[in-house]
Amino acid sequence: MALPTRKIVPLIVACALFMQQMDSTALATSLPSMAGSLGVTPLKLHLAITSYLMSLAIFLPMSGWVADKFGPRRIFCLAIGLFTLGSVLCGVSINLTTLVAARVIQGLGGAMMVPVGRLILVRSVEKNELLSAMVLMNMTAIIGPAAGPLLGGAITSFISWRWIFWINVPAGILGIVLTLQFIRDLNKAEVNAFDWRGFVLTGFGFGCLMAALDSVSSQLGDNIMPLGLLFAGLITLAIYYVHSRIVSNPILDLRLFRLTSFRISVTGGSIFRLGFGAIPFLLPLLMQVGFGYSPLKSGTITFISSAGSFGMRSISRRVIKKFGFRNILIWNALITAGFMFMYGSFDQSTSRLFMMAVIFGGGVFRSLQMTSVNTIAFAEVNNVQMRDATSMSQMAQRISQVAGVALAALILGLAGNGGAHLTVHAFSVAFCVLGGISALSLLLFWQLPLDAGAELADRVSPPAAQHSR
Length: 469
Known about the structure:
Helix content: over 70%
Low-confidence stretches: 462-469
Number of helices: 22
CATH topology of the largest domain: Growth Hormone, Chain: A
Distance between the termini: 38 Å
Order of helices and strands: HHHHHHHHHHHHHHHHHHHHHH
Number of strands: 0
Radius of gyration: 21 Å
CATH architecture of the largest domain: Up-down Bundle
């Protein structure tokens, strides 16, 4: 019997997520080995992560327009192919410069691949089935992060880190074949002229802001470049704000922030990811540089986080239906921050089983928070706004992840003599600071209405139920 749309579409979109997340988690496990091969310090290789995320954030705003102009299915296939090409180029990189350039190409593909895949999902599934579809998509895609640390550690230990990128090739081919076979060719939408001025302004503005954060973590001195980049980014984005009020089709529709649930999802979620987005970067470095573990041993410990995420995603719909989005986002922010503090307590004498238990628990509650944040963003968004909302929420996620990794690298550099001698204490400081930042997100989530996202969670409050009768 053929699978219904609400199941087949999430599974195919999950192929794209699988590639992206497998790549990211396997890469994080292999950073120290890659650094030795390319002749740089492990801390310097955070550029391999942030360059990809920066490329994602810069090109994300155009993904929705391109999908509507040329058709989501066609662009989805093109994006998968481009990401796969970037993966091949990463695998043949000879130095940090060529690796970063290849990661930028991957980011261009990823900028269209994941948001267009999500756009296909939200346009193919009824709104009352959206939460179930997203849970299925995320639960399936979590196989990538679950296998990433183990596979990355094994490949690095026994073959070469280059194969981490080349394993994306069969997944990319499978994704294209399944898309052409099972996803219907959604009609192209009528689109306005592309907002090239807005694209240049947002790309340059956000690029400068992220480069400023990244250069702070790299320079660690009196260089004025970060300040100059920060100033240029803020001025450019201020110009874009004026521009968006004048044109009828801005590339980023800032009017979406008038929607309470969308605004709080983006702002609160960004603050939360600022802390937790750095975990895939910090944990493998702690295990390998701080504790002296091999890539494989590190991977066998850190993979348990994704196992916890997988378990929670299978029941997250029921949990959200029982407690509601607002309660979960508030209290779960505190719980997940507590796990960050516990990561900071790890040292060479910590039991391996204890570390795995804590990492597993962190994965469980982080997964619940991410599912809740990503879903509540669309509670008040209509079909016309869906394209812009998808692009903007994805872009905010990437910017906050860049900021989180850059901030983690900055803290490690300050506490570890510029990154030359990373100590366990430096990692402890980083985890505690980032955990405190994540906890601050509850101040934003507190502003959500009590019944926020009730329709998405199939959760009707008693007064509403009585009124309907």
